[in-house]
Model the fold of this input.
Amino acid sequence: MTSRAADLFRVEDEVGVLIRRIKHVIAERACEVHPELHPMSYPLLAHIGRCGPLRAVALCDAFAMDKGGVSRQVQGLVDLGLIERQPDPEDRRATLLAMSPEGTRRMSAVSRSRSDRFAERLISWTDADLAAFADQLGRYNAALGD
Amino acid sequence: MTSRAADLFRVEDEVGVLIRRIKHVIAERACEVHPELHPMSYPLLAHIGRCGPLRAVALCDAFAMDKGGVSRQVQGLVDLGLIERQPDPEDRRATLLAMSPEGTRRMSAVSRSRSDRFAERLISWTDADLAAFADQLGRYNAALGD
DNA sequence: GGAATATGGTTGCGTACTGCAACTGTTGCT
DNA sequence: AGCAACAGTTGCAGTACGCAACCATATTCC
Done:
């Protein structure tokens, strides 16, 4: 087995581990943001927060998930008052999803919070490490894209 | 927001995207290895393949998942003949899980396969990129550990 | 040696997530 | 106007998984 093949396998294995372990962190985060926030909705909320107002179909593309699931999760976020629906001026079929003031407030409260034990665990990472890791994740996700 | 905080948020977002998108790749892989292999069992199989014979409880730790779920998935892998149970000489309560010849054969067949479109998508990554990414994922997973 | 406790693993149960498909309402093309 | 394409919603069903109760073997402590 070539070293490249071994590394491909290693990445595969580590990603497999990641997607299981991360669920606990995500659940914890979701609970901190809002006790009734469904864990799996947190990534959508974070994405809306980071990538600005966008359509539901953009979430389907970004997360490669079904329209139905997105619709339900978005409904949950709206019900909790964390995001708001705005009519899309460019297309009356669509609605834009944006963080609500409440959602923004709660998200930033959590990221400043001491209870963010996860960030503490990355304390040994330099800023450059972190930025490089984010870049690579982005490249990897792009490679996963259709 | 500091640049470090922004990068933490970016990592969080990218990981959120990853764990959704990767499921499609995993499902594809699982199907290539064995058409009846449950998608979510593939990561366990890969881990057994890479980390040698180990106990079910080691899988619980590695993936931070429940004993019950592991037990069921392992049963599935055994039923498909991809892994074998061996008595653990050090503890008669435990059983060691190891790749079967059939499992090894199928896994290596897939990794050599032309149908591994995923590896092709990473063709622009240098060997060093890949190794560095694997390392960082490992560090990240370690940070997620209890 | 024997009881109490801890550990590896299995199974039953309930729930959450999500893909699929059918449906509504809007837009754009011809 | 009519039809195809697209944004989003909802019902249905299957899968995956955590929890708790359980059995078997090990270990600890008296």
